[in-house]
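My main concern about presentation is that the manuscript never shows what a single data entry looks like. For the editor and my fellow referees, an illustration may be useful. For illustration, here is how one protein appears when written out as sequence plus C-alpha cells:

***
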Amino acid sequence: MTRFDAISDDFDASVPVGETPRARCPYCERPFRAADLCALHIGQVHREECTEAEREDYDDAYDAESDALFLFQLKAVAMLVVLSLGLTYTYAVVWT
C-alpha cells in the first residue's frame, strides 16, 4: 500500500452555485481550485493513465510544493530558535 492508496474520495466535491473550478481532472471530472492541485491529483491518483505532459506538470507542481513546504519548515525552526533564545535571555535578565 502506497501513501496515495489512503486518499479518500468519499467527500463532497461539488462546486457551489455561481462558482466555476479553475481546473478539472480529465479522468474523474473532480474540480480543483488551482491547476497545480489538479496536476498533483493526476500524478498521484491517475499515474497509469496520465500523459507525458501531465507527468511533467505533476513533477513541476510536486517540486514547487516541496520547496514551499521546506521554506515553511525552515521558518518554523527559525521561529522556535528565536523564541527559545528570547525566553532564555528574558529568564537571564529577570532572575539575575
Summary: Residues 23-71 form one domain. The chain is about 55% helix and 5% strand.
